[in-house]
Structures are given as C-alpha cells and as structure tokens.
Amino acid sequence: METTNSHNGGIMWFFKDKGFDDKSIHEMLKKCKRLEGVPREKASENWAYLRTIGIQERKIPSVVGKCPKILTLGLHEKLVPTVECLATLGTKPKEVASAITKFPNILSHSVEEKLCPLLAFFEAIGVPEKQLGKMILLNPRIISYSIEKKLSEIVQFLASLGLSRDGMISKVLVRHPFIMGYSVDKRLRPTTEFLRSLGLNETDLQRVVINFPEVLSRDVNKILRPNLAYLKSSGFDYGQIAALVAGYPPVLIKSITNSLGPRINFLVNVMGRRIDEIADYPDFFRHGLKKRLELRHKLLQERNIHCSLSEMLDCNQKKFLSKFCLVEQLA
After folding, report:
1. Are 276 and 241 in contact (CB under 8 A)?
2. Which of 59, 98, 172, 318 has a CA 20 to 30 Å removed from the CA of 197?
3. 180 to 74, 85, 86, 148: CA distances (angstroms)
C-alpha cells in the first residue's frame, strides 16, 4: 500500500512539474487507472521519448492528456516498436509525429492486432501501397475503427453507388480518408439522398463522390441545406442549382459569408453580369476573388474586352495574357 501511495505521489508531482492542474491530473487518473502505479522515472522516460520523435514540447501535455496510457507503456517493448512501424508508412520525417499529435491513442493499439489487418484490408480493396501510409497518417483514427462493423460498411455503401470498378472506392478513401469516420446511416446516406433530391443523376452523384468526397461528409441540415437556400435566394432556379452542384459540388459546402456571397456580389455589382452565367460555368466559384477574378476583370475592363466567364477564367495566367494580348500592358 505504501509503495502504491509513493508511486501515486510521484506521478502527481511529475504532472505538477509539467504544468498540469489538479483537475487535469484527476481526469487523467480517472481515464487511466494504471497511472497510479507508474514510477515517476518511467513517466519521465516516455515523456522524453515523445520529444525525440519530433513532437513539440508544448504539444506533449495535450498528447498525454488525450491518452495518458502512453506514460504506462513499456518504452522499448511497446512505444519504440510502434513508432518504428508507423515510420515505415511515412515518407516525411514529421508525418509520424503529426499523426500521434492528432490521435495519441494510435500508440496504444497493437501493431499485430490492428495495423496489420488494417493494411491487408485496404490492400484488398485496391489502395496502392504507396498511398496506404499517407492515408493512415493523415487520419490516424482509422486504426481504431472496426474493419467488420465500420470500414466494411463504408466500402459496401460506396459500392452501392456504383463505385465498384477500376479502384474507384480506393480513390475516394485516399482522397478523403476522413470519410471513414462518418456513419453511413446518420451522415453518408442522408447526404446522398439530399444530392439526389436536387436532380443529380447516378453519374453526377458518382462524379461528386469520386472528385469531392468531402461533400458527402457534410451535415445536410447544418451546411448543405443553408447553402441551397442561399443559392435560391440569389436567383438560381432548381435546374441551375442542379447544374451548379454537378459542375462544382463544393458550392454546397463553401462558406456563404467568405466565399459564395463575395463572388456573386462581385459578378453582379462590379462585373455587371447575370448570375445565369455562373450556371453555365460552375467553376466560377473555384477561382480566387482577389488573385484571379478582380485582377482579370480589371485588365479586361481597361481594354474594353468582353468575353464569357470560361474564356476569362479557364486558363492559367500566361495563357490568359496571351489570349487577350495583354502581355505588353501588364509589362
């Protein structure tokens, strides 16, 4: 009993030395009962190791706070082998440290029981070997997901949308690995049905999922529906909105205040154009307001040149200047 109390007192002082308050210490002890028996020397050793693998000192308290179990794990038996395994997945020195900072619990999972089956699962559905590490390190929470109960369900749902050929599903997961964290029934299916209700056909829907899977991850009532209402209030009819969404799906998730509003205002009130032109060129919303729209409009206006939005925007700066003979003027 005295030994346990001694260890408990040691770990308390260790945390206090690291700047934790009593409430935070209590929460960590509640989260991980094994902390009470951890010698201060072991905790110090594990803490120091986190620093050596590239985690910034100021971020270590947050890492430990989220997963205090890290301080109880054997350094050479558990932490070092796990980090070395994760390092084989990355191509950049800071990727592993970044993954651990995002999701510290990744260090508490078994390489043999979790990581190896996970890699085998993704390889089986066609994820390229070079992309496996990138995907897992970008969203390290993947390692905590059940293959049977969660990941397989996501894959089956994507296949039900017609993405079962040519590695389409693997492309979606690599492009947006965070999609695997969402519930099929509570998020992905409702979003899909909402997109269908706008008039998107199956081909349009597949294009959305493959090229902009992040749209599928957004909440219908909090984000997609308010953006739809804004587009309606701006004067777009249902057919035009369907064309906008099919042509540039992020129009449903872009900020109204910082993105959609300023661009529509500039088009109508500064450029003097009709919003119908956006329906013909949905990529209008993709271009930067300051660096592209305002600059190019000014150059064309000074030369009294009139053209369509696609002619104005759908090319790089060099081709734009050459197309409208503006090289000398800019120089």
Report:
1. no
2. 172
3. 31, 22, 20, 13
What are the distances in angstroms from CA 303 to CA 198, 311, 327? Answer: 40, 15, 12
Q: Are 279 and 290 in contact (CB under 8 A)?
A: no
Query: Do 228 and 252 touch, CB atoms closer than 8 A?
Result: yes
Token duo for residue 64: 């430990």
Q: Are 49 and 81 in contact (CB under 8 A)?
A: no
Tens digit of each residue's pLDDT (9 = 90 or more) over 177-220? 999 999 999 999 999 999 999 999 999 999 999 999 999 999 99
Best CA proximity match to 217, nearest among 256, 188, 249, 180: 188
Q: Yes or no: say if 18 and 47 are a contact pair by the CB < 8 Å rule.
A: yes
- Report the alpha-carbon distance of residue 27 to residue 25 in Å, rounded: 5
Sheet strands (E) in 18-77: none
Reported residue count of the chain is 331
Tokens matching residue 322: 């050459």
Cα–Cα dist 275/312, whole Å: 16
